TrEMBL record:
Alphabetical list of SUPFAM superfamilies matching this protein: Nudix
Family of the protein in this entry: Belongs to the Nudix hydrolase family. NudK subfamily.
Annotated protein name in UniProt: GDP-mannose pyrophosphatase
MF terms (GO), sorted A to Z: hydrolase activity, acting on acid anhydrides, in phosphorus-containing anhydrides; metal ion binding
Length: 194
């Protein structure tokens, strides 16, 4: 894009993800150039998947403690979400989503469908999240699996509930995660569980 030049990145923090300050010259529509500074945060891209069962009309979600939610003073930090996570180096989004569904929810998923790829907060976060839905049957539950990896600091409660109940939890603000809201609404709009 010829409206941007002299891009300089300064790493402000690199712990789990990387926080950068990007300085750049930006040309406004009136032709004026201005030097701007913006922060951008990210690790790798991510994935998220909503598991749904066409026989029981249920979905599988996870419930976990999220420190950014806690320090915002919301719901004592508890967040109900679709399963998801960061893509490891060399992994495809499909491989990540299958791995996360097993680690976090304890389900073996073979029937994946890509929905779309989204930015959750394009002014701040550079991560793109690949959204999927996956049909499951009761037989796909792996015994003694799910709940996340304690060695990685994860403690995840698996919730299987009727899709209508999950949709009501959007209205009541019990579900506040954008990925989860998008995927539940996708299933509803496409009539996949009606
Ligand atoms: N999120 C996060 N995880 C960390 C951090 N430091 C270590 N971890 C460890 O890294 C793993 C992250 O788990 P994932 O399942 O891969 O990711 P997530 O926390 O569920 O989701 C986050 O990443 C997604 C993909 O990048 C995002 O889409 C999502 O919004 C969220 O930030 C966990 O084991 C967690 O303990 C940190 O600063 N932040
Ligand atoms: Mg996760």
């Amino acid at each position: 894009m010829n409206r941007i030049k002299n891009i300089k990145s300064t790493v402000l923090s690199h712990f789990w993800g990387k926080l950068e300050r990007i300085d750049f010259d930006f040309k406004f529509k009136n032709g004026n150039w201005k030097r701007l500074s913006h922060e951008a945060y990210g690790k790798s891209d991510g994935v998220a998947i909503l598991l749904y069962n066409t026989e029981t009309k249920k979905v599988v979600l996870s419930k976990q403690f999220r420190i950014p939610v806690y320090i915002s003073g919301v719901s004592e930090g508890v967040s109900i979400e679709v399963c998801g996570g960061a893509i490891d180096e060399g992994e495809s989004p499909e491989t990540t989503v299958i791995r996360e569904a097993k680690e976090e929810l304890g389900y073996h998923i073979s029937n994946l469908k890509a929905v779309n790829t989204v930015f959750l907060s394009p002014g701040i976060v550079r991560e793109r999240v690949h959204l999927f839905i996956g049909e499951y049957k009761d037989l796909d539950k792996i015994d003694n699996s799910g709940g996340g990896l304690e060695i990685e600091g994860e403690e995840i409660e698996v919730m299987e509930l009727p899709v209508e109940e999950a949709l009501n939890m959007i209205d009541s603000q019990e579900i506040i995660d954008a990925r989860t809201i998008m995927l539940l609404q996708h299933v509803k709009i496409k009539g996949l569980l009606s």
